[in-house]
Structures are given as structure tokens and as C-alpha cells.
Structures
1.
Amino acid sequence: MTAKIVCLVLFVVVTVAIGIYSRSKIRGMDDFFLGSRSLGPWMTAFAYGTSYFSAVVFVGYAGNFGWNMGLSTLWIAIGNAIFGCLVPWLVLGSRTRSMTRRLGVSTMPEFFAVRFDSKALKIVAAFIIFVFLVPYTASIYKGLGFMFEHAFGLPMVWVILGMSALTCIYLVLGGYVATAINDFFQGLIMLVGSVLMVLYVINRPEIGGISAAVATLHQISTEGAKDLGLTSVFGPAPLRLLGLVILTSFGTWGMPQMLHKFYAVRDEKAIRRGAVISTVFALVIGFGAYFTGAFGRVFLGNRMPEVGGVDAIMPTILATSLPDVLFGVILVLMLSASMSTLAALVLVSSSVISIDFVKGFVKPDIKPKAQMSIMQLCCVVFIALSFFMAVWPNSTVNVLMALSWGLISGMFLAPYLFGLLWKGTTKAGAWAGFVTGFAAMAIGVITQLPAVDGNFGKLFMPGIGSVAMVLSVIVVPVVSLVTKKHDAAHLTRIFGETAKDADAA
């Protein structure tokens, strides 16, 4: 207990200290929200990676799907590294950076408004971001709650309340500058912790090395009347696995807190380096989480935890199998992964109120200092809403996260992607993407609810979310081909000197 407390106290002290230090660097909204668009490759790549992976991955996804799908979940880690990090950095990074700077936009709703000449798109996008990033933030708090409940025996509600307060303090103090600095140090902790976790898992008596662990998992998988497929290449449910890979990998292409990193990166050179750094980061973290989760049945003797269910699998493994010092490190790893993601979510969500709504509609001439104060207040409100959703009992960690990713990426991925790369994308095409993504999620939830007796926590949200994203990607270009195009002057303003390259792409 002493080791765990020491690790936790050191983490909290360093986090708050960075927030206080960063406060001196904040001179206005551009500093608070974008770090003056001057961050280099390491800071940006670690900010991207730490925003990507949180307690949701370790607790909700690795534990839950590792238990049900076994070794096939490692495909999720591979997909996250390639399609969630490398490809979006190469395809979206440079174009996002150059276009947002040329147009003077700093949020995704602003991008939609300027790119498609539509204030209505901006209003809808801002509303969706603020409302539906709340479940994602709640899922992170919930995952952290399970970890700390097992580590310290504290009631989850108090753990979540403490994490909410810590997020609020350092984010309100230092904004994106504090987030980026924290992300770098937290990323280092995550890398070290993940490597140590895997090494220890391999050498545990219950595991006895990789070969023995796979043999034990295969025995568990085949000892019943039906082979569970826990050691097969694509697992017991290949389509379910595909849905998970699509949602968790391509979902980053439409999530505002991920794309925000490209707005703030310094130059083209930083993007090229950042692509490599973030990909390596994702491989290490993703492999560490899913590898450990895949052997959950081996660790726990094929017995599901009685309290907490699937969300308690990883916390139980770590709390009962690791020595105190290493568990303290892993606990800080989870906290690091989650705090960085939380900060990114809160910052982006609050920006849609202060930048897109207040400055965009209510008071266009608002002074920067007043605008920043509103954004800080919105941070507090957003964190409070997330806290109350996190303590809602009828939901699992992975369902809350998948609801947020599925709906937001289902609506935004295709309009953003085609709007960024193709001059032929029309306003009607963007609206079609918005409507299709939302409708697909709504219909998917409504049709699945009877099958799970109305229990929201049992819905397979990754499948619904991946379908929403795929349908939107199909609909946007099809509708754009048959609807009114933007005039040449508008397209020249949007694409500038890169118009030919964008059209060719």
C-alpha cells in the first residue's frame, strides 16, 4: 500500500506542478487552446498517443474482449497502430495543419462552417461534440474508478470525484500547454509501465512463458462442448473483431480531440517524425494492454470476477498478480493514460461553447480574456456532467466509449475526410454524412435493445459504430456527385495552392 500511495502522490504533485508552471505560458486563447501552434514532433506525437489510449483500453477493451475473444484481440492493437496512428498522420496531418492555418480555424465545427459555407453545420457539430463526448469521458472515469477501487478499496464515487478535481485543476491552470507537457511525461510512464507489465505477465507462475500460456488458454477454450476459439487467428467472432478494429482504428479520423493535435503541430517535418513516434507508441501500449487481457482467463482460472463483471477483469489481474511496486507503476500508467485523454476531451468539448457558440454567434466581439474565462468555466461544467454519467450504474466502460466514438466518428469522419481531400465534396454531401451517421447509430441501438432486454450495458456498440462510419463514407461522395458544387472562388479560398493536389487525391 505504501508503494502505491507514494507513486500516486508523486503523480499528483508533478501534474499540478506542471499546471502551475504552464499558467505563466498562457497569454491568450491561442496559447490556451493550441499552444500557439508551435509544438514539435515528440510533444505532438505523445499528445496524440496518450489521448488515444486510456483506462478504457486497459480496463474496458483489453479485459472484456480479451476474455471473450482471446489472442485475436491483438489484431486491434495492430489496427490501432497502422490505421489509427500511422495512416491518419500521413493522410490528414499535413493537410489539416495547412488548411486550418490558412483559414484561421481552430475547431472542427469552425472547419465545417468555413469549408462548406454553413453556419448550421457548425451549430450541429458543436452540439454533438459537447453532448456526446460526455459518455467517453465518463467511461474513462469509470475505468479509473475500477482500478482504484481494487488498489485502495475506496468507493468508486470518491475516486471519480478526486480524478475529476485533478483534471479540472491542471487543465484550467495551463490549458493545452499543460496538457502537452503532461502528455510527454505521462507517455514515458505508459511506455515503461507497459513493457514491465508484459515482462512480468510472461514470467508469472500462472503463465509460465508464452508457449505454456497459449497451451493453457487453448485447453480452456476447448474443454467444453464447444471450442471458444480463444487461440484461433481471428477468434470466435471475426465480424465482431472487424467491427472493433474499424471503430477503434478509423474512429480517430473523425474524433475532434485527435485531429486537434494536427492543428497545433509546428511544421511539416514535425508531422513526418510524429507519424513514426506515435505509431511506435501505439504498438507498445496497444500490445501491452491486449496481450495481458488475452490471458485473463489463464490468470483468473477461467472465473469471472463476481463484483464488477467484465470491467473488473484487468483490475483484478493486476491487483492480485503484480508486486506492490510494479502495481503502483501500472496504476500510474492507467492514471497517465486516462488523465491525458480526459484533458484532450474536456479541452475540445469546452472549445465548442466558447469559440463556436459564444464568439461565433452570441458575442462575436468578445474580448480574448473573457472568452478564455468562459472556456475555463465550460471545462468545469463538462467535467461535472461526465462525473454524474460515470456513476450511472447501468453501463459498462466499453459501451460508453463506443457510443461516443461511434456517433461522433459516424457523423464527422466522412465529411471531414472528403472535405479535406476532395474539392467535389458539397454542403449536401456533408449534411448527408451527418444524418447517415446519426441515423445508423440510432437505428442500431433501437433494434438491438429488445435483444438485450433493454439493458444498455449489453449493447455491442462497436458494431453499430463501425456500420455508421462505413455508411457515411459511402454516402458523402455519392451525394456530393449529384448535388450543387461550391463555386470556384470558394474552393480557391479553401484549398489555396494545394487545390490541385487535393483534387487529385
2.
Amino acid sequence: MRLNSFFLKFLFLLLSTSVCAAQSTEMVYTVVDQMPYFQGCDNYGFGSDQKRNCSNQEVVNYIMNTLSYPEQAKLAGIEGIVYISFVVSKDGTVVESKILKDIGGGCGVEAIRVVQSMPNWIPGELKETKVPVQLQLPIQFQFSTLNEREEYKLRWGTLSEANEVSRKDLRRNLEEAVQVFDSQGFMTSVNALVFSCNKNNKVLSIQSSGVVTPKMRKFIKKKLKKGSLFSVIATIQKDGVFMEIDKEFVVVK
């Protein structure tokens, strides 16, 4: 999801224009006197450019902090923009979300999940009456270049510098968090975490939303054998671009 200045302008247009439609017996609008606002911009006055810009930026921030890159899409190298349509109802809840354009690999499903998880909006108004408003949202999936990924370093407890580990070493490390730091030593949030084991050309893996789960601890204990190549893969975001930061270990005993 790359969020450059062009994308932000594009997002503003899609969140501000369209035509009206019918939903059951109630009219759903896409152009009203006061378009819906995303939460987090209470310091600005209604109708002001500052509040609209703040609302659009808060939408971007929410997507950046919530969206995960589907593993199927990563493996297939799928990138692009998913377009989602949804309605902000009279009480501000997000309803009637649907995919207008998908790029496959689970990206459309993930985009819908993010939209459906949104907190209540401030509803739109027509002639000072709250009305349902339909919006369209582009969500872009894109990975970084290798040079950008090299700015980050993965650390996992006492195993950060090791290349060869024993199963005993790994078990001792299971309660530690997987962390990613930038070139200045600042820690960044991990959006997704994968443990992968390769032995005799057979690959097994398990994924979480960024933390070492009980199932992942069990995976370490049951699946790793001597001679396995064990990989820890953390997915992060920088300016809306996804990056995979990884560390490989050879299990020696």
C-alpha cells in the first residue's frame, strides 16, 4: 500500500464524489452538503479544508496500521490497487462494503476486512439531516525494494546475531518477542510474522499477526529437526509500503 502524494489526492477525490443510489427503500447518497468524516479530527471545524484533509489522513493512517499483506499474494508477487465501495450509515457505522475491483491473492478479502473493521464515522448530512453516504476507497498493495529492506534489522531475543542454533536454543527463546529496528535503532511495529521450516525440500510454515503465538511455539518444538533451515519473517510498513525483514537459522542439533 504505497501512499504517495498522488495517492492521497486520488483518495480525497474518491471519498468526496459520485452519484446517488437506492438501498432498499432508503436513498443512499454519494454527494451531500457535508460528506462523512473519519474519527480523530475534532479540533477542526465542520466544512473546513483542514478537517477534510485530517479525515483523509486518518483514513490512510488506519489502513496503514490495520492492513496485512496476504501471504498468498506475497508468494505470487501480486501488487496493485483494490477498490472498495462502502456506505457510512446515518449512525456512522460502515455497512454494505463490497469489492469493486480485485487483484487476487486474497488482497480483496483483506481490503474488505480492513474496511469492515473501521470505527464509526461522523455521518454525512444533507440539509442538516444525517443521511447514508456511499464512498469508494482505493487500497494499494505494494512491496519495497531490496535496498529499502536492508535499512532494517530483525532481532529475536538472544538469537539476533546467530546463524546456527540448536533446538534447545530456540526453545529457550520462545517467550521473546520478534522485533524489527531501523538504521537509527528505532523499533517499528510488526504487522505479520511467519515461522518457516525447510527440510529435504519440504516447506512448512505458520503465520500470526505479529506476535509469537502458542501455536508457533508448538511449531518450533514439534517441526524443527537437525539440518532444518528455519526462517523468521516479519512484515512491516514504511510510508505505506510493505517490507519483509527476515533472519535465517540452520538448526545444527
3.
Amino acid sequence: MSNPIHQFVVTPIAPPLEIFGYDVSFTNSSLWMLISAVLSVVLISMATRRSSVIPGRAQMCAELLYEFVGKMVQENVGKKGASYFPLIFTLFVFILAGNILGLVPHSFTYTSHLIVTGVLALFVFFMTIGFGLYNHGFKFFSLFLPPNVPWWLVAFIIPIEIISFFVRPITLSVRLFANMMAGHIILKVVVSFAVAAAGMGAAWATLGVFPVLINVGLMMFELLVACIQAYVFAILSCVYLKDSVDLHH
């Protein structure tokens, strides 16, 4: 049985490159990030290039995606959060593309790496703080003290609010990376069973059909998980960014 962890190894695909002592080589992870970004831009641009009153299938899919994310932002951030739509839309499409392309054989799922999901989560975290300070100034820090809290609870509430605020990047990043990694490991293990059975003779090869059928079902399930995890990341980003619009909600 092949190592199910091997699919997550980041390997350079170009000559090694170091800048100020840091390895910044172009890797398989970088390649699939680039493919996801370019493919997303090309597909959406092609779908909306010729807008018509009666949309075709491609235009309809693009419009449904646009309306889906727009409604998500409006419901969770509010009307004032319309300026956040480009950010949430970009995050959602980038993560969704990475999750789905990761199901293609011999591809690389960059969302299964904590460093990638961690950077995305930290980006949302610092954007929340930055927009909060821009919109409210230092009053933004009143977020850590909900209104109408009894004075004798203040010493307990503030540390709890601070901790819950600063663990957001951890929970946001770990949820995505853990779900994608676990799903791909299970897929790899089940496929390995089918391959091993096929190499043990005709009788065992017949039994190998069952792991294949199970893997088809798991692929469908992973496709669903890929979409759900992109949605969860985007909607939680909306919830966190709402703090930069409404301090107490």
C-alpha cells in the first residue's frame, strides 16, 4: 500500500531559489494555486463576457455564484458590508477551486496544508482589525466588552472575549485543512485496497470492485465537502468581518 501522506508533500518543480536565506522555490503547491487562480478568472470572464437578457448556461452559473456570495455577505455583514463582497467572493472562489481541483488525479490540494489555510485565516483576521480601526478608531476595542455587562463580571468577560477573538484564525484555518486532509487520506487508503486486490489475481481482483465502488461514493462525498468547506470559510469570514462594521451585535 502506498503512503497516503505522500500526496501532501510539497516539492519544488523549478530550480531552487533563495532570497535573504529563505527558500522561495516554485513548488507543486504554487503551481496549483496559480492554476486555480488563472482558471477561475478565465472561466468567470468567459461566462460574463457576453451578457444577455436570456443567459446561457455559463452566464447563469456565474450569476448564481455572484448572487450566492452577494446574499451571503448581505445576510451576515449587512448592507454596509457590500464593500467586502470582492474579498469574500475571491476567498470563496479560490478555496472552492483549490478543493475541487484537488480531487483531480495527480493534482495537489493546497487547501490541505495548514500554512495555506493559516495565511488565509490571518488575512481575514488582520483585515477585520484594520477595517475596524478604520471605521471606528480605537473604539473598536470596545468589542471586547459587550454592553450591559455587570461591573463584577468585567474582569472575567474581557479576557474571555480577547481569547475568543484571537483564536479565530486557528479555528478558521484548522477546520478547512483538517477536513481536506482527512478526506484525501481516506480516498488514498481505499484506492490502495483496490489496487492491491487487483494485483493478487483474478479472484481478488473481483473483490477489488467493492473498494472502487466505495471510492466513487467517497469522491461524491468529498466533492460535497469541498463545496461546504469553501462555504463555511466564507461565511465565517463574513461573521468575523461584521465586527468591523457593527461593534456589538
